[in-house]
Amino acid sequence: MRIAIVHDYIKEYGGAERVLEELHKLFPEAPVYTSIYAPEYLGPHMWVFRQMRIKTSFLQWIPYKEKLISIFRLISPLSFLSFDLSKFDVIIVSQTGAYFPNLVRKGRAKLVCYTHTPPRYLYGYMTAREWQKDTLMRIFGSIANHFLRMVDFKASENVDYFIANSEEVRVRIQKFYRKDAVVINPPVSLSTPEVKAAPTSGVKKKEYYLAGGRLARAKGIDIIVEAFNRSGKKLKVFGKGFAGFDEELKSMAGKNIEFLGEVTDIERQELMANAKAYVFASFDEDFGITPVEAMAAGTPVIAYRSGGVRETVVDPSTSSGQVATGIFFDENTPDAINEAIKKFEKAKISSDECRKQAEKFSSEVFDKKILDFVNSLTI
Q1: Judgement on whether residues 100 and 54 belong to the same structural domain of the protein
Q2: Are 315 and 328 a contacting pair, CB within 8 Å?
Q3: Do 341 and 370 reside in the same domain of the chain?
Q4: Contact assessment for residue 83 and residue 105, using Cβ atoms and an 8 Å cutoff
Q5: 133 and 234 part of one domain
Q6: Helix, strand, or coil here: 215?
Q7: Of 88, 73, 119, 82, whose CA–CA distance to 103 is shortest?
Q8: What is the DSSP letter of 160?
Q9: What is the dihedral of CA 155, 158, 161, 162, to 10 degrees?
Q10: Which domain CATH number covers 109?
Q11: Residues 8, 120: one domain?
């Protein structure tokens, strides 16, 4: 089959880009169509995309395009309409929830949309930018979003098959697009040999807690930082800042909190393997790859009970016979986080059980399900 891959834009490396990387491994001959490609912003992950045949839209030629990602939402539909992919048999769209990539001209091709989430900014979910605080921006944004919701729904009608990355997102697809979807969880990198050299059983007692990923407001990192300001416990934070949020975090953090910036895959896995627990406070997380990565390194997770993380972390209060791999907190506040940490420090959570849970979300599982799905299509 002649296959093409479509992705919103390539400027940062997160969970959606990990899926894009894995899709390209499965279909290495498939070209990757995207609105904007800015490799200089990808840090240690730049090499991943050098191996792809990336086709960009006219937005690539606009000066200062890297600074205009949010504004481009208004004209991004035109960038994907400019792609004529009718010569392909199957188009696999990786929909991150930023733009409207399902608008590509598909002809007779089957369009499969792997949905990380419908656009959060269109449907009332917390986003990285607090655009609603400014009155003029709130008025303009509300009007623009009204029309963009219609564009988004129109784009969804171009999709032949939806794949949701979690049950949480499957429900969103049904609610906003009125379409069914199958659930295939995203691939999670299990520990490398260097990380597997860490202790393989029992309760690990390390010196710091860990948080991180994409440092955006919706991830709740500021709430975690405030919790550790109050407790005085040691916290390490990794990841790239978004819209200057990392500088805000650093300004509010005490001396017990260390910011590591963007790290390599090996460095991240080592940080996870040697942490007491991984703390996760994201609002309505679509799936949440980093908590699973932490469990893959044998490290328990302390998480806000919200979104996709409820499908991956096993809490003692809701385990239903399963062995616990973390602790949930029900209010996303510093006090609730600190209470959850107290519960965690009294609990006994096995590193082996964390790893077993993470294996359910391995790249091998993802690869098989995606290949089976694509091969089942009638072209």
Answers
A1: yes
A2: yes
A3: no
A4: yes
A5: no
A6: strand
A7: 82
A8: S
A9: 0
A10: 3.40.50
A11: yes
Structure tokens at 301: 């997770």
Q: Which domain holds residue 104?
A: 3-187+362-375
Question: CA 192 → CA 20, 21, 143, distances in Å?
Answer: 20, 18, 48
Q: What is the pLDDT along the chain (379 residues), one digit of tens a residue?
A: 899 999 999 998 888 999 999 999 999 999 999 999 999 888 788 888 988 999 999 999 999 998 888 889 999 999 999 999 999 999 999 999 999 999 999 999 999 999 999 998 899 887 766 656 666 766 766 788 889 999 999 999 999 999 999 999 999 999 999 999 999 999 987 755 444 444 444 444 578 999 998 888 889 999 999 999 999 999 999 988 776 778 888 999 999 999 998 888 888 889 999 999 999 999 999 999 999 999 999 999 999 999 999 999 999 876 566 788 999 999 999 999 999 999 999 988 999 999 999 999 999 999 999 999 999 987 6
C-alpha angle 373-377-379 in degrees, rounded to nearest 5: 155
271: CATH: 3.40.50.2000
3-state secondary structure of 204: coil
Total number of domains constituting the chain: 2
Q: Are 201 and 89 in the same domain?
A: no
Same domain, 47 and 102: yes
Residues 116 and 159 in one domain: yes
How do strand 90-95 and strand 32-34 relate by DSSP bridges?
Answer: unpaired
Coil/strand/helix, residue 270: helix
The one-letter code for the residue type at 186 is P
22 lies in the same domain as 107: yes
